[in-house]
């Protein structure tokens, strides 16, 4: 018999029960459910609502049920509706009427909310751990390729030369903000809603803060109505996952480009690439493409939960049962993609000499000519206009900047002198950067030192 149907004359129709059962999803939170129940029972005993011996009996039985579920001996049967009902029913089977005291002064509403927060707390720690791990992988690669020059892009058009390490460090910085978001989310997730009961609290002399203390949580969700009816912290976590996935997707896109024959820069190890069933020459960057594709799952989870919550009156509504589907999907997908992206990067080599010689004299050095003229007291906008004319000459003659004769430079501006050519190499371009946080070797070294210290 369902734990809620004491006033009903008929059981729930099997088709309706199967439709409403959530044990396939919330069954994954059995550890959190048992941890919350144990803390609740300890509080009930402390407050003398049940006896100490009863609490010990219940706790011992709950530990036994945990072992049975973990070993697979206790099956998660959809007919039990949810994990809370299954555990309570099994508890009563084991210890009789004492087991019926477990649910004193709580509702499934606050119980579910607690399970979710305990799960979020655990998974936020794991997400932070995995994010730190991929940051370290980026850092290792940045150290390995700190002298390698690549073209930087805007609009996917060559813009200015960069040290490859500088680009890799950009991802470390992005992911660091992801860690900040996760840590900030933890402040709100680590609050206990238990004791709010269905929505209005309880007349029994409970101690909500004691339960939070037993669980190692940082206080309680004060308002009982808010405690059971809000899922904004869950939305916040999925949002943080979405941003992580967006960052991973941008990196994946670059891996796809870099490994193409046109770029010829990244060589993905065979163990992280696939071939074609038809074309024997193919080596496909499938892991990067899958990470890029799985972003849709996490974005879908975010919009799914936002849609569920957007018009719900307070407090609990059964629609909210669907929240865990989106939470688990977002968290598990993000964890998988963090791990796989890190491994993909570890198992990729980059051609150190692919671009530097090609970039010497390249039009991506045009801004070097602008700065050259600015240093000769030519106003920036005028210098920009002068160099635009030089670029047009390069296009018309199919030449690089360092292939244009000095006489032709002087026809456009008398400010050009023989020394201009020393600025037209990719190496001089990166070495001449002066601004803080730039791609100069000195600044890149400083950034590497910063991240080595902060990621220890």
Provide keyphrases for this structure.
456 residues, mainly alpha, Ribonucleotide Reductase Protein R1, domain 1, two-stranded antiparallel sheet, 18 helices
Could you describe the 3D structure shown?
This protein is mainly α and 456 residues long. The chain folds into three domains: 14-104, Fumarase C, Chain B, domain 1 (Orthogonal Bundle), CATH 1.10.275.10; 109-145 and 152-354, Fumarase/aspartase (Central domain) (Fumarase C, Chain A, domain 2), CATH 1.20.200; 357-454, Orthogonal Bundle (Ribonucleotide Reductase Protein R1, domain 1). It has 18 helices and four strands. The chain has helices at residues 14-20, 23-26, 30-46, 52-71, 83-95, 108-144, 164-189, 208-214, 224-229, 232-258, 286-309, 323-346, 356-359, 366-375, 380-397, 406-412, 426-431, 441-454, and strands at residues 149-154, 157-163, 266-268, 348-350. The strands form two sheets. It has a two-stranded antiparallel sheet with strand order 1-2. The chain has a two-stranded antiparallel ribbon with strand order 3-4. A hairpin with a 2-residue loop joins strand 1 (149-154) and strand 2. The chain is elongated, with a radius of gyration of 31 Å. 39% of the residues are buried. The model has no long low-confidence stretch (mean pLDDT 95).
Q: Per CATH, what is the topology of the largest domain?
A: Fumarase C, Chain A, domain 2
Work out the radius of gyration: 31 Å
Contiguous uncertain segments of 5+ residues = none
As for the number of domains, it is 3
Using the coordinates above, name the CATH class of the largest domain: Mainly Alpha
Number-wise, the strands total: 4
CATH superfamily of the largest domain: Fumarase/aspartase (Central domain)
The neighbouring-strand order within the major sheet is 1-2
How does the helix and strand content classify structurally? mainly alpha
Query: Which series of helices and strands comes N to C?
Result: HHHHHHEEHHHHEHHEHHHHHH
């Amino acid at each position: 018999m369902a734990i809620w149907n004491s006033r009903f004359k008929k059981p729930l129709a099997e088709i309706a029960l199967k439709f409403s059962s959530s044990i396939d999803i919330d069954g994954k939170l059995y550890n959190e459910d048992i941890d919350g129940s144990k803390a609740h029972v300890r509080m009930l005993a402390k407050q003398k609502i049940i006896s100490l011996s009863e609490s010990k009996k219940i706790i011992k039985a709950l530990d036994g049920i945990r072992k049975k579920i973990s070993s697979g001996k206790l099956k998660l049967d959809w007919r039990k509706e949810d994990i809370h009902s299954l555990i309570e029913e099994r508890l009563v089977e084991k210890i009789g009427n004492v087991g019926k005291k477990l649910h004193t002064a709580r509702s499934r509403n606050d119980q579910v909310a607690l399970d979710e927060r305990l799960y979020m707390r655990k998974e936020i720690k794991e997400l932070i751990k995995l994010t730190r791990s991929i940051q370290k992988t980026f850092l290792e690669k940045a150290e390995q390729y700190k002298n390698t020059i690549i073209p930087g892009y805007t609009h996917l058009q060559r813009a200015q030369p960069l040290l490859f390490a500088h680009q890799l460090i950009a991802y470390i910085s992005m992911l660091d903000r992801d860690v900040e978001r996760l840590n900030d989310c933890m402040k709100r997730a680590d609050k206990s809603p238990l004791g709010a009961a269905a929505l209005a609290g309880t007349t029994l002399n409970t101690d909500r803060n004691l339960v939070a203390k037993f669980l190692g949580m940082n206080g309680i969700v004060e308002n009982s109505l808010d405690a059971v009816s809000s899922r904004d912290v869950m939305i916040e976590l999925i949002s943080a996952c979405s941003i992580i996935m967006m960052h991973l997707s941008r990196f994946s896109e670059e891996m796809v480009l870099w490994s193409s024959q046109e770029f010829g820069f990244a060589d993905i190890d065979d163990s992280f690439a696939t071939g074609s069933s038809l074309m024997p020459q193919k080596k496909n960057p499938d892991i990067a493409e899958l990470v890029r594709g799985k972003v849709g799952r996490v974005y879908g989870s975010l919009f799914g939960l936002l849609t569920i919550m957007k018009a719900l009156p307070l407090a609990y509504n059964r629609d909210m049962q669907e929240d865990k589907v989106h939470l688990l999907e977002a968290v598990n997908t993000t964890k998988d993609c963090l791990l796989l992206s890190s491994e993909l990067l570890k198992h990729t080599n980059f051609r150190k000499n692919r671009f530097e010689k090609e970039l010497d004299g390249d039009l991506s050095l045009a801004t070097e000519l602008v700065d050259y003229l600015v240093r000769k007291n030519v106003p920036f906008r005028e210098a920009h206009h002068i160099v635009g004319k030089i670029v047009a000459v390069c296009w018309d003659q199919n030449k690089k900047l360092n292939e244009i004769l000095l006489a032709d430079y002087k026809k456009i501006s008398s400010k050009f002198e023989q020394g201009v050519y020393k600025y037209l190499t990719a190496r001089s371009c990166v070495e001449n950067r002066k601004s803080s946080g730039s791609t100069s070797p000195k600044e890149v070294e400083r950034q590497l030192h910063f991240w080595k210290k902060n990621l220890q």
